[in-house]
Amino acid sequence: MTPAGSLLIATDLRKTYGPTPALDGAHFSIHPGEVVAIMGPSGSGKSTLLHCLAGIVTPDSGSILYQGREMHGMSDAHRSALRRSDFGFVFQFGQLVPELSCVENVALPLRLNGTPRKHAEATALDWMRRLEVDDLKDKRPGEVSGGQGQRVAVARSLVTGPRVLFADEPTGALDSFNGERVMELLTEAARSTQAAVVLVTHEARVAAYSDREIVVRDGKSRDMERAV
Ligand SMILES: Nc1ncnc2c1ncn2[C@@H]1O[C@H](COP(=O)(O)OP(=O)(O)OP(=O)(O)O)[C@@H](O)[C@H]1O
Ligand SMILES: [Mg+2]
């Protein structure tokens, strides 16, 4: 079954670590511009699913089609290039480089793609403005709050114009006020560029920012109807 117009479709993913099946026949699909939340208890396989979809972890079996192409049929070099050009990532603790200023952090993916510094930092600053952290541009990550750091990390994930933004518990380390602000700005920024968002979260109020929810339990996934 191939839902028409899907950007990313995973079918029957299986992944075992030792005796533990982390994924046991999981399915997933997302359309361009859609925000999908992956929910489920701790250890259910959410991060493993996200890492497989993002081409970071190779499943033992199953299929992942990105724009109609099988990801695991690609060479490692091609898959890495795809990750750099089409995917953005945000993790629970931001993972900013402590030695760089905030604007240098946001500009980093562009610099790694060969964009000259001045242009990369101007684009970075535009994104920081949209995430309302441009006033922090010269600060180091250690000098900003958790919520501000996550907004810097979101700016960094979007600076290259990804088609898919993968976010694993992006608000997991924040209080509810800051978490909601990060989600508001993240979804607004992603929607403005038509980037799809794959969001892993434990929290119903974070999942409420999505268009659709997929619940993972014991490595199996289920689509949930959104109760409006
Ligand atoms: N690199 C790994 N090596 C060994 N086991 C792993 C590895 N990654 C995940 N697992 C196991 O696979 C299962 C699923 O883990 P996963 O990290 O996907 O869960 P999760 O739903 O993201 O949990 P959490 O909400 O706590 O982040 C767990 O039993 C976990 O211990
Ligand atoms: Mg996890």
TrEMBL record:
InterPro entries: AAA+_ATPase, ABC_transporter-like_ATP-bd, ABC_transpr_LolD-like, MacB-like_ATP-bd, P-loop_NTPase
Residue ranges constituting the ABC transporter domain according to the UniProt record: 8-228
Keyword Transport set for record: yes
One MF annotation (Gene Ontology) recorded for this entry: transmembrane transporter activity
Superkingdom of the organism of origin: Bacteria
The keyword Nucleotide-binding is annotated on this UniProt entry: yes
Pfam families per the UniProt record, alphabetical: ABC_tran
Keywords carried by this UniProt record: ATP-binding, Nucleotide-binding, Transport
One GO CC term, this protein: plasma membrane
PANTHER family: ABC TRANSPORTER RELATED, IMPORT ATP-BINDING PROTEIN
Full protein name: Macrolide ABC transporter ATP-binding protein
